[in-house]
Specification:
4 helices; mainly beta; seven-stranded mixed β-sheet; four-stranded antiparallel β-sheet; single chain; disordered N terminus
């Protein structure tokens, strides 16, 4: 028997199914009872600066939707913008996000490694007025008055788009990855089981923040972890909608055979 065994992907090498984004509960490594969980908490210690070019363009407000990953110790592991009014607002957050303080999500009394969506709202005054929590969703508001920006005729925006697969200019094309191998021992211990991961593909085409959505059968935890890390090495041709950079959320079910 070979030293490594190929994982056969149920939907094929490029059979990736798009999922509608659901704002809400943190995504832990494993299936969590979200009724007993508490979301990631953020303390904004330094506010992002409203981009001056956007002010000059007449943009009164904006929104960036972040997807962040925080480990059980409260360390920011990864983050990305899955949609944004303009890339400059993402850059503004990038300048300060590593100075923010994070508290981990909890499942029961135990801190967990989790991922979660956060909408961040900007306005031209830049004041942080409220931190809102609704069930499993935390929203950090920069004076919620951005609704009129879509009607500003003078703006020249470079939005980051969270796309659906039918909106893409081209079907996702692998540049790297699409085939995963695991050590034979782990594959044998997981034979007959399958796992479903969800992840985002960023504007450069890299898979970001893969997280486990479900397990069918008895998959070895180390095999699941191996697959999760392998997904981080997948890369697609950068996605676009009408020529603009886009992100997309995908799902992949993988079977151990």
């Amino acid at each position: 028997m070979n030293n490594s065994t190929c994982i056969k992907q149920i939907l094929g090498a490029l059979a990736l199914s798009l999922l509608m984004v659901k704002t809400g509960a943190p995504s832990a490594f494993g299936e969590a009872d979200f009724k007993e969980s508490e979301g990631i908490r953020i303390t904004i210690t330094q506010s992002p600066v409203f981009p001056y070019d956007m002010l000059k363009a007449g943009v009164a407000g904006a929104r960036v939707t972040l997807f962040i990953s925080v480990d059980e110790y409260g360390h920011l592991v990864d983050w990305m913008a899955i949609d944004a009014t303009d890339e400059s607002f993402v850059d503004a957050i990038g300048d300060v996000i590593y100075d923010w303080d994070f508290s981990p999500a909890y499942q029961g009394d135990a801190p967990i490694f989790a991922s979660q969506r956060f909408p961040v709202y900007f306005d031209g005054e830049g004041a942080v007025l409220a931190i809102k929590q609704r069930r499993q969703e935390l929203a950090y508001a920069y004076r919620y008055s951005y609704a009129s920006y879509e009607e500003s005729p003078s703006r020249r925006l470079r939005p980051v788009v969270l796309a659906t697969i039918d909106q893409l200019d081209e079907y996702p094309e692998f540049l790297q990855g699409g085939r995963i191998t695991v050590p034979t021992e782990l594959n044998e211990a997981s034979r007959g089981s399958s796992v479903k991961f969800e992840f985002y593909v960023d504007t450069d085409g890299w898979v970001r923040i893969p997280f486990l959505r479900s397990v069918e059968g008895e998959a070895h935890p180390d095999a699941i972890a191996f697959v999760q890390e392998a997904l981080r090495d997948w890369k697609f041709k950068p996605l676009k909608v009408n020529g603009q950079a886009a992100t997309i959320r995908m799902a992949q079910r993988i079977r151990f055979e």
